[in-house]
Amino acid sequence: MYVDFHTHGKLAKKLPFSTEYTDWLMREAKAAGLDAICLTEHFNTLQFEELYGYLKNVCIRDGDLLVTKDGLRIFAGMETDIAEGGHILCIGSLENIMELNARLEPYKGKGNFLPFEELMDLFEEYPVVTGAAHPYREGGHIPQLPFEQLKRLQFLDLNGKDVASDRAYYEVKTGSLAKILNIPMVGGSDTHQAVQYGCIRTNFHIAVNTVEGLYEQMKAGSYEIIVSENAPFQVKTAGLLKTALKEIHALGGDYVSVLTGGKST
Could you give the CA distance from residue 39 to residue 72 in angstroms, rounded to a whole number? Predict the structure, then answer.
């Protein structure tokens, strides 16, 4: 079961939610060879509720999974900023992610982000799996947090965008921290659009349909992280495409039609 642990369902946080764009992303994820994704949308993205409400309506439920008509399995999740600088991923059932997002409403503005300790206190009220996103990316300070707090994390994200820029550095740094904390390291592309799917993925030996089952396989080490030889090209191309699509939107154009040929799903 090929899983991408860090994905997004929108092109950018401040752009409107588009059903056609999200449909395109999900189709392309499946076409890229992924069996499942963790949809870790930014917690303060515009129309977070609408995104998940749409997927709830068009997908079939299988345990904790949302399954698209093309068979892509989606674990609900979100990516949350912390006051110290850095991002925390959490993965859970649709209902728990939606409730957590609603409770985080007062803390979605820059300058109001919760400190790591308080955010983890909140997450630990729910049966979700939490991890540090791209812990060594510039601007973040997760590795500098107190060790006793870091031990509350359940996994680390070996991030495709980082690996594409310097694979050896990020594999060693992230892997070393995972060993010190005695927690799994898994791969996530961090994509906001489809070109980046498959730059990194995590191959599980057993398919699961619950968050608990996924975490058990993570702890058992029943997986391998696979980095594409084309990861640098994919990430660079994805960045250029994202910039171009945002510019189309800023100029009043329909960036979704550019990608789909004007066809809705």
Answer: 11
Measured CA to CA, the distance from residue 52 to residue 237 in angstroms comes to: 27
CB 100 within 8 A of CB 129: no
Distances (CA, A) of 73 to 17, 38, 64, 70: 20, 9, 10, 9
Complete DSSP assignment for 148-160: HHHTT--EEEEEH
Percent composition of the chain: helix, strand, coil (DSSP 3-state, to 5): 40, 20, 35
**Any domain includes 23:** yes
Do 199 and 227 touch, CB atoms closer than 8 A?
Answer: yes
Give the domain CATH number at 116.
Answer: 3.20.20.140
Per residue in 114-163, pLDDT (tens digit) is 999 999 999 999 999 999 999 999 999 999 999 999 999 999 999 999 99
Crossing angle, helix 48-58 and helix 19-31, to 10 degrees? 60
Supply 210's token pair: 């619950």
pLDDT digit string (tens) for 51-93?
999 999 999 999 999 999 999 999 999 999 999 999 999 999 9
Helix 48-58 × helix 94-103 angle, to 10°: 170
The count of structural domains within the chain is: 1
Identity at 161, one-letter amino acid code: K
Q: How far apart are CA 111 and CA 130, in angstroms?
A: 22
Residue 265 lies in a domain: no
Residue 75: strand pairing partners: 38
